[in-house]
């Protein structure tokens, strides 16, 4: 029988149909789409709103005559994983199904869950995974399990999901009842168990790279994730988080706007987590924008306040007077661009990332909107033209396509390229070709474009008919042709056999000159009747070219006569299904076949079939042709945009290419990266790294970083000793100083490549490499002090961070486990607690012990009990621990309720019982070597330990100092004294007078203090006018000899008994004990353009603007770098 139904669009347009009861719902839907002239897929719904299953028959769907159905057609929606080494796209089609492509690992392969992806409402993406919300409120995930692609552990909880938010590697879903379910990487927010009871009535969730922040219905905030790196711990500002309206996130910090227009921040200070310097200005804030490392707030009067990393946008002082009547702000990774009410633009931040727009300033008028790539901006003007600036190779230079950029409607960006949709639906692209800046291969298809989405290095455009066109790097989703494998996977066995035989049929004569290797393997199973899709190869030769299609009828007849059972009709239907997904061409590039020299192999499928069959019959493989050595031409760019073109032999090393680039670009050491962002191995030959002519490489030059091994204080050593380790821009390491303190790294020098960071114990170093492994070195012979990690080397994989006691190291792995080595009594042996060290979030160290905070906020300790290695006496109290601070021999933990638990040596602050009742609402703790000082929520201070209750040495701390300690902002500590900066810029000191506890002699000068630095026994304060005030021990506490020179001071560094100040002009002033670095006269002429200073116990090392290093102080403590000076020079000086 048949029934009659009406099908309506939401617009009101309708059509009536007669449908057979045995016909499929899918066929009914297709007829409706044709009759209603609807482009794209859609969903057919019952009057109740229920989506009809296309696979069912009309009868099975219980449709009846006169039913009124609705055809709901939605535009294709694109979502992308991005910013990883690989990327993927997910397309949500109009019928609620999903198609994915790109690299499999980050979600490009959804085959395992394809049957579940029905009636999808929305899709969210983390760095390497996707999560889809279905119409029934359940969730389907795919991609990397480590980044949220596996939700099995919480599957039963994912019901009535309303929305999903993603951090870098985790997801958080808000349910209909306001509760939250999380999954993915536990340290990055995938585990919310510690705050689960608080996650009620959640209204919205914001995510940094590493953590989540949820706003509750009452305006309070709950945070979880990585406390150290991502803002997962808001306990220090919890009391301030009331009536929160919205939250914004940088890479590693959060900023919340309150109902009264003020702002509260938390997370890593150098990523915007500390806004104390501008707190008084943050009033009546309207909105906040974030770059990777900074925030910019627009106030109601149109002015702007910024904070965070000064270089990357946190300091807008240079353009502050221009920031008036600001309407909106856009951010690149490291810079900001503000549109003013008059349509002009003001920029600030890192110049190479778009922070400097003076070259196009006059063109930036009547600006309508701004889009940003990683290090460039593109502005659409009112007339539809476009102005670009920033890194020229990342889209900051659009001159090559400027004449085409007319009537631009919207712009989308990958990391290093832009794509603009014009009014006529065409697309113009520019920027780095390997990041999608070249769309020429797809240009003919880019018509009637409705929207564009981007991954890190590819674009996908949705056309008016719902089709999708892609371009850019294949491994980032730039080639949707890979989906052809999915079509083959869906073929029936008979279809696979038939299609394979059809593709290998004679049809076209062989063309000479094409060389392939191992061609017979492609079809070796065809005659046996089994065909398996090889995803590495099938997408490159699976479709017959148009020249074969003309012979389809003839081939069909031949095959039917020869072997009717083959099922050619099925094969042809399968071929059509595949061809719908891929644009066929007469020839195909086969990059996976190894060929020598620059030749690329192109071959017709018919020719391939002939070559394969003939070679197979002869029992041989086709050989490659050898080509002579050659040279290639590459461009090498700096992030600033400066570039150089170089000719290099294919057999030359990558290292030699890098050195030539450094000389040509007049820069220091760095890492050479290919267009995908991968670091090239200097030991490999050019051809081994698969470099070719026209490649664009990036020379990434980092500033030198210094780390020093330090003793237990020079006051304990008759002959002070120390060593420095310099991490150079290219990831290599140079060491100098005393051999007994780790200055000899020659035994591991070959392993010290691509080093990311260095940690030091008292006598050894540990370097964390880019691949997550660790290299260690130190003095020869026992005790090793951590310099020998051979016993645990196999376990040191995927290391995230390293912490050090005086004689041991502890490495935190990506899975939350811990590996330790070094002097066993000082924490090098954690075997007694190894089974407890799971889901570790952070580690703190005293001189002889470690303490680890777990994901459930409990604590595990190990090492010397006299140094805090045994917390058993307070273990029951160590619950909901937020952070831990350490003195030399004790620990102090702040709990979630603001109370404090201490353990370790009582003489070093391990016993806080005398002040326990006062330790309430603690926000932060500072430690000296012998004591602790806690700042409470009301700005008062509680201190305990040796010297903590001693005011001017007369024991009246509680009477004098306590009354003055109000509105305390921060505390600094010498060995046995404290100095607190109050909100009004004044200073209060206490502790042992000969260690800086008595500042009465300079009290009247301590006004408008900005920061304080401390040596062992003295303090140095930088005032608002750039001058310096010192007090304490005569070894650094008296700066009178250089007082006139201490003007416009930017920062101060301290050894045990001396100070070194960097002035605004890059020069250095030193004072204190000459044996401890207080006399820099021998190197004064070299101390120009100093960028930063690092100190060992008894020496200093200064990094200059050109990356070279100047040292002074005790030679045994690293004060003489003469033996390695040649290695510490930049390339242009060699």
Automatic annotation (TrEMBL):
UniProt entry tagged with the keyword Repeat: yes
Xref: InterPro entries: RCC1/BLIP-II, Ub_ligase/GEF_domain, Ubiquitin-like_dom, Ubiquitin-like_domsf
Domain Ubiquitin-like: 3-75, 632-703
Keyword Ribonucleoprotein among record annotations: no
Keywords: Repeat
Domain of life: Eukaryota
Descriptive protein name: Putative E3 ubiquitin-protein ligase HERC2
């Amino acid at each position: 029988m048949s029934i009659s139904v009406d099908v309506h669009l939401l617009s009101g347009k309708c059509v009536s149909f007669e449908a057979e009861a045995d016909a499929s719902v899918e066929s009914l839907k297709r007829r409706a789409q044709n009759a209603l002239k609807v482009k794209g897929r859609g969903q057919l719904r019952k009057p109740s709103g229920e989506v009809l299953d296309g696979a069912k028959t009309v009868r099975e769907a219980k449709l009846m005559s006169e039913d009124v159905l609705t055809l709901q057609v939605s535009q294709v929606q694109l979502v992308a994983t991005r910013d990883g080494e690989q990327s993927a796209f997910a397309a949500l089609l109009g019928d609620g199904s999903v198609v994915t492509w790109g690299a499999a690992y980050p979600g490009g392969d959804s085959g395992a869950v394809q049957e579940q992806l029905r009636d999808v409402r929305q899709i969210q993406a983390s760095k390497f995974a996707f999560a889809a919300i279905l119409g029934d409120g359940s969730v389907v995930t795919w991609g990397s399990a480590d980044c949220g692609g596996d939700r099995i552990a919480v599957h039963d909880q994912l019901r009535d999901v309303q929305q999903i938010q993603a951090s870098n590697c985790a997801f958080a879903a808000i349910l209909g009842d306001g509760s939250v379910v999380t999954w993915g990487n536990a340290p990055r927010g995938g585990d919310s168990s510690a705050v689960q009871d608080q996650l009620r009535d959640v209204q919205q969730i914001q995510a940094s790279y590493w953590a989540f922040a949820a706003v509750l219905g009452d305006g309070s905030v709950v945070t979880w994730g990585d406390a150290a790196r991502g803002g997962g711990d808001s306990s220090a500002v919890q009391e301030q988080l009331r009536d929160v309206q919205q939250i914004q996130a940088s890479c590693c910090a959060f900023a919340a706007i309150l109902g009264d227009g003020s702002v509260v921040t938390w997370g890593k200070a150098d990523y915007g987590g500390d806004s104390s310097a501008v707190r008084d200005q943050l009033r009546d804030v309207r909105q906040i924008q974030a770059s990777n490392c900074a925030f910019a707030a627009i106030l109601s009067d149109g002015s702007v306040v910024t904070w965070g990393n000064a270089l990357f946008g946190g300091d807008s002082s240079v353009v502050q007077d221009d920031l008036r009547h600001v309407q909106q702000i856009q951010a690149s990774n490291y810079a900001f661009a503000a549109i003013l009410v008059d349509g002009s633009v003001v920029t600030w931040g890192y110049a190479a990332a778009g922070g400097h727009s003076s070259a196009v300033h006059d063109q930036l008028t009547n600006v309508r909107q701004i889009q940003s790539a990683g290090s460039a901006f593109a502005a659409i003007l009112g007339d539809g033209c476009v102005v670009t600036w920033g890194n020229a190779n990342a889209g900051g230079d659009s001159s090559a396509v400027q004449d085409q950029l007319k009537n631009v409607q919207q712009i989308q960006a990958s990391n290093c390229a832009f794509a603009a949709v014009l009014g006529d639906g065409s697309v113009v692209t520019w920027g780095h070709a390997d990041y999608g800046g070249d769309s020429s291969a797809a240009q003919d298809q880019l018509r009637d474009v409705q929207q564009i989405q981007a991954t890190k290095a590819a674009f996908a455009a949705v056309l008016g008919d719902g089709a999708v066109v892609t371009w850019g790097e294949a491994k980032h989703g730039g080639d949707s042709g890979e989906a052809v494998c999915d079509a083959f996977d869906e073929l029936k066995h008979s279809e696979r056999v038939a299609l394979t035989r059809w593709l290998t049929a004679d049809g076209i004569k062989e063309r000479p000159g094409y060389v392939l290797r191992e061609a017979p393997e492609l079809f070796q199973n065809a005659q046996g009747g089994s065909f398996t899709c090889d995803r590495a190869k099938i997408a490159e030769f699976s479709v017959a070219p148009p020249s074969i299609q003309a012979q389809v009828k003839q081939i069909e007849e031949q095959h039917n006569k020869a072997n009717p059972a083959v099922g050619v009709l099925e094969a042809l239907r399968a071929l059509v299904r595949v061809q719908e997904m891929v644009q066929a061409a007469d020839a195909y590039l086969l990059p996976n076949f190894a060929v020598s020299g620059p030749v690329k192999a192109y071959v017709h499928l018919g020719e391939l079939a002939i070559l394969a069959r003939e070679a197979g019959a002869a029992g041989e493989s086709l050989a490659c042709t050898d080509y002579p050595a050659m040279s290639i031409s590459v461009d090498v760019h700096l992030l600033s945009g400066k570039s150089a073109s170089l000719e290099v032999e294919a057999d030359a090393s990558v290292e030699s290419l890098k050195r030539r680039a450094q000389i040509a670009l007049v820069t220091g050491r760095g890492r050479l990266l290919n267009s995908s962002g991968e670091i090239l191995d200097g030991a490999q030959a050019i051809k081994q790294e698969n470099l070719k002519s026209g490649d664009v490489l990036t020379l990434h030059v980092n500033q030198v970083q210094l780390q020093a091994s330090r003793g237990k204080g020079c006051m304990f050593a008759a002959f002070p000793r120390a060593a420095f380790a310099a991490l150079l821009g290219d990831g290599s390491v140079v060491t100098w100083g005393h051999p007994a303190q780790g200055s000899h790294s020659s035994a591991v020098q070959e392993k010290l490549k691509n080093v990311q960071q260095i940690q030091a114990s008292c006598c050894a170093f540990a370097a964390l490499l880019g691949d997550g492994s660790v290299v260690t070195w130190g003095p020869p012979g026992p005790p090793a002090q951590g310099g020998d990690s051979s016993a645990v080397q196999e376990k040191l994989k995927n290391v995230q961070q390293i912490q050090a006691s005086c004689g041991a190291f502890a490495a935190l792995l990506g899975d939350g486990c811990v590996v330790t080595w070094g002097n066993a009594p000082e924490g090098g042996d954690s075997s007694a607690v190894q089974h407890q060290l799971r889901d570790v979030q952070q580690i703190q160290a005293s001189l002889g012990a470690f303490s680890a905070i777990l994901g459930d906020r409990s604590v595990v300790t190990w090492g010397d009990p006299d140094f805090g290695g045994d917390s058993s006496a307070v273990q029951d109290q160590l619950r909901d621990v937020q952070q831990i601070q350490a003195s030399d021999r004790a620990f102090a933990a702040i709990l979630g309720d603001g109370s404090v638990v201490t353990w370790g040596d009582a003489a070093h602050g391990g016993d806080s019982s005398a002040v326990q009742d006062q330790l309430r609402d603690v926000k932060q703790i500072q430690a000296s070597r012998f004591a602790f000082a806690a700042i409470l929520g009301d700005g008062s201070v509680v201190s305990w330990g040796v010297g903590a209750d001693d005011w001017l040495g007369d024991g009246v701390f509680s009477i004098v100092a306590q009354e003055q300690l109000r509105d305390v902002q921060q505390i600094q500590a010498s060995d046995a004294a404290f100095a607190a900066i109050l909100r009004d810029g004044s200073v209060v000191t206490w502790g042992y007078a000969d260690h800086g506890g008595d500042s009465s002699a300079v009290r009247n000068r301590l006004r408008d203090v900005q920061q304080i630095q401390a040596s062992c026994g003295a303090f140095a304060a930088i005032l608002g006018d750039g001058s310096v005030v010192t007090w304490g021990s005569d070894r650094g506490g008296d700066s009178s000899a250089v007082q006139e020179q201490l003007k416009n001071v930017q920062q101060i560094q301290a050894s045990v008994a001396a100070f070194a100040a960097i002035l605004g002009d890059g020069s250095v002033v030193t004072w204190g004990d000459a044996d401890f670095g207080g006399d820099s006269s021998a190197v004064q002429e070299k101390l120009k353009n100093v960028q930063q200073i690092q100190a060992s116990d008894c020496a200093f090392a200064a990094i200059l603007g050109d990356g070279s290093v100047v040292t002074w102080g005790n030679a045994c403590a690293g004060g003489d770098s003469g033996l390695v000076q040649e290695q510490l020079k930049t390339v242009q000086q060699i």
